[in-house]
Records
---
Amino acid sequence: CDGLGNPVKFLLTPGQTHDVTQAESMIEGIAAEHVLMDKGYDSDPLVAAIEKSGAKAVIPARSNRKTPREYDREVSRERNKIERLFGRLKQCRRIATRYEKTARNFLAFLHLASAMIWLV
């Protein structure tokens, strides 16, 4: 999502695929000053890719990380906009329960719900 909590890009993956494997493709082509993510995205290659794109990575370190990395705690508080976006998307019953059998149809309804969020 962007800085206002509006949806920007979706990428659908199988349920068993971890999100961090798709993070680089999600930030590709999007200009940003900061990239905010949760602890699950804490990996050195991802942070390097974010900094290579010209943005600053705001990702808290996992508890088992040997050398904790510093991050801006004030900017990290803005991550709640991402969580609120998911909450707004899940207000659509069809998305929350995933009635659609095919990924194509589910992604189409995600785009429709996102368009409704942009219009409101």
Note: The mean pLDDT is 90.
---
Amino acid sequence: SGTVQLVTEDGKYYVRMTENFTFDGAPLPIVALGNKGYKKETATVKLKSNKGVSEYLLPSAIQPTDYSHVVIWCE
């Protein structure tokens, strides 16, 4: 739960979890993007922290504006 922001800096996209972000835990959580569910090709960044502020650089091949959701996914 909590707030997630999509941030652009110097032409790069980041997913930023804010202070109120919390995740109840799971094995190997990955930050991904999706529309009505996650898209496997976007699941490239390991979740750094289950609580609070953290930031994740998205690979340049991913166009985050094509997606409507940030998803924490576990394979």
Note: Strands lie at 4-9, 12-17, 29-34, 45-46, 54-57, 69-74.
